[in-house]
Amino acid sequence: xxxxGFYPGCSLNGSSREYNESVRAVAEAAGLVLEEVPDWNCCxxxxxxxxxxEISLALPARILANAENAGIKEILVPCAACYNRLAxxxxxxxxxxxxxxxxxxxxxAELKCDVQIIxxxxxxxxxxxxxxxxxVNRTFSRRVACYxxxxxxxxxxxxxFDRPEDPVSMDRIMQKLGATAVEWAFKTxxxxxxxxxxxxxxxxxxxxxxxxxxxxxxxxxIIVACPMCHSNLDMRRPAINAYxxxxxxxxxxxxxxxxxxxxxxxxxxxxxxxxxxxxxDNILQTS
Length: 287
Prior knowledge:
Shape: globular
Strand content: 5-15%
Largest sheet: 4 strands, parallel
Distance between the termini: 39 Å
């Protein structure tokens, strides 16, 4: 069986438990082993880099060091914020010897910075998509809006993942599942990210514009790959509805939940019963 390093981060063990469940369920169905980084810690997203640069680098650096010491060469990081922080830290340590030395002093760890960091879309494209035709037994026949958010594609010069203004990797995966990926204007617009607690009004406005555009394109489902995006579009629906002045019921699901459904994995095993906006258990049946 193929083994892949795995950094779940805080969200997947807490507020985004269903994301964790769906990643693990898809991996299991595909015969993949997820090797969790030993003794991992919070990566510092989203606030640390606004408060203390050294600490904001030391936190992800310790994760990378633990992965290196465990012999892990490639880490799947499903949370877009965690992926962003680990990838940016790796870049900074590779290109700034002075800060690397300081971070090694803070962490007490030698760092090679040669661990590859992949997000959930890269993981799906590398390990799941090549065998998808043999694994899919139910068609996802819905119009979907693939929402990437800010952190999967920016900064483009460092992450070098997909097209920064009009990414297509999630669209391609959903199309392979039988979905129709709509063309829309808000693929990478900010949902309010870390303001979910401190400024729900701003989240309502920003996320409201995202959902409004998706619905104008007749999307039936919003597909995401980020815990914060899911939290804001799903949990903060009352603030969105107050801004839109309409009761929006369009469900928001993780890309791994969509893949899992098409692979025939059970509804609850994918955590679809945990969402604030209900997801119909016959979501794959066209009306």
